[in-house]
Each structure stands twice: as C-alpha cells, then as structure tokens.
C-alpha cells in the first residue's frame, strides 16, 4: 500500500518558525513604539514653544496697553521681588501672589480687587484648557485662580523687565541676557534647569528647555 503524499503546505509552523515570527513582530512593535514616542515628544515641544511664545506676546501686549507688568504685587512687594539690582522679576504661570495668569486671562471674580489690573477686561492669553489641576494646559479654578502647566506637568517660568520704559528691553535668564521685556521658558522633559532649582546655567540640564527667545 502506497504511503499518501503529504503536502508540506498543509503542515503547521514549527516552533522555531513561530519564534522567528514572534521576534520579528516584537522588533517591529518596538520600532513603532520608538517612532510614536518620538512623534509625541516633538508634539509636546511644539506645544510648549507655542505656549512660551503666546505668553510672551500676551505680556508684551498687556504692557503696551497698561504701561506696567501684569502682576498684583504692591510697590513694596515689587521691590522685594526684583532681582539683579531691581532689573527684573521672576514668576511662574501658576497663580501665586503675582496673579499673572488671572490678569492675562481676565479670569477674576467681580469682587476681586485685582480686577483693576486689567481695566480693559482683555483676555490677552488663551490656549488648550484642562479640567484637571496640575495637568498640561490652562486650568481655571473656581476661586478665580488660573494655572498653566507645560506638557510635562511643570510650570512655565516668566521673567519680566522691572523697567519696561527703558529704551533697551532686556531681561536676564541665568547668565543669558535676552533683549526683550519678557522671556518665558519650560524646563522640558527632565523638569530641570530653572532659576528655582539653581541649574539655569547648567547646559546639561537646560539642553531640553523650551524657550520664547
């Protein structure tokens, strides 16, 4: 009796073949994930740069309209907050006592005394909003406070010229002199390299910083 001919095509994959296929799939998945992560990171950098430039423009427009920096500090507090022999101020885009984001977005309660700091009721700044405090984007609290976090969930740093009437606009960011009345930056993915952590002049920690200049 003849042994029936077995068509090789009808056989299943061997264990080695399956392992090879799985290895190829995992390699392709790893490559795809790397590409996706790279695209997402570039998107975050683009968002951060847009926010930095938007904040800079908002502050400059506010200064043009009101002839002062958009902060709620008293004269004494402004003197106390001034850095580098009174040349500039440093604050963040998370509402503290400076109220800078409330002023720039015109988000203040009617009874808020600081409403007079935006007499034209102009919303100088707007961007993507979030309902989660501390998440990336613009967050509006019910108490009239506003915060803006970068895509890596850190605050933006804002440096303001304390003397905006000077003929030569300038602010100092660490050892760098920026010839503008305002400079804005994000500490980027590593969340390091700011005036707050003292590493603003460390090139290794500021390499991924995103700036408005």
From TrEMBL:
Residue ranges the record marks as coiled coil: none
NCBIfam families, A to Z: IV_pilin_GFxxxE
Keywords recorded for this protein, A-Z: Membrane, Methylation, Transmembrane, Transmembrane helix
Subcellular location: Membrane
Top-level taxon: Bacteria
Designated name of the protein: Prepilin-type N-terminal cleavage/methylation domain-containing protein
Region feature (Disordered): 188-213
Listed PANTHER family: GENERAL SECRETION PATHWAY PROTEIN G (PTHR30093), TYPE II SECRETION SYSTEM CORE PROTEIN G (PTHR30093:SF44)
Lineage: Bacteria, Pseudomonadati, Verrucomicrobiota, Verrucomicrobiia, Verrucomicrobiales
InterPro entries documented for this protein: Bac_GSPG_pilin, N_methyl_site, Pilin-like
Membrane topology (UniProt): Single-pass membrane protein
GO biological process: protein secretion by the type II secretion system
Transmembrane region(s): 12-36
Record's GO cellular component terms: membrane; type II protein secretion system complex
């Amino acid at each position: 009796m003849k042994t029936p001919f077995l068509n090789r095509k009808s056989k299943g994959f061997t264990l080695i073949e399956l392992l090879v296929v799985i290895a190829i799939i995992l390699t392709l998945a790893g490559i795809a994930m790397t590409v996706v992560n790279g695209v997402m990171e570039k998107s975050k950098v683009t968002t951060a740069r847009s926010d930095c430039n938007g904040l800079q423009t908002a502050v400059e427009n506010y200064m043009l309209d009101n002839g002062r920096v958009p902060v709620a500090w008293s004269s004494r507090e402004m003197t106390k907050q001034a850095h580098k022999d009174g040349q500039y101020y440093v604050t963040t885009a998370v509402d503290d006592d400076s109220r800078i984001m409330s002023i720039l977005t015109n988000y203040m309660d009617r009874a808020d005394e600081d409403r007079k700091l935006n007499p034209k009721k102009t919303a100088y700044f707007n961007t993507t909003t979030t309902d989660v405090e501390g998440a990336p984007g613009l967050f509006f609290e019910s108490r009239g406070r506003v915060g803006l976090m970068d895509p890596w969930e850190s605050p933006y740093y804002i440096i303001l010229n304390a003397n905006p009437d000077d003929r030569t606009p300038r602010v100092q960011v660490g050892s760098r002199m920026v010839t503008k009345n305002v400079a804005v930056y994000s500490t980027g993915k590593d969340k390091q390299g700011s005036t707050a952590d003292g590493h603003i002049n460390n090139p290794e920690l500021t390499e991924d910083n995103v700036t408005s200049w």
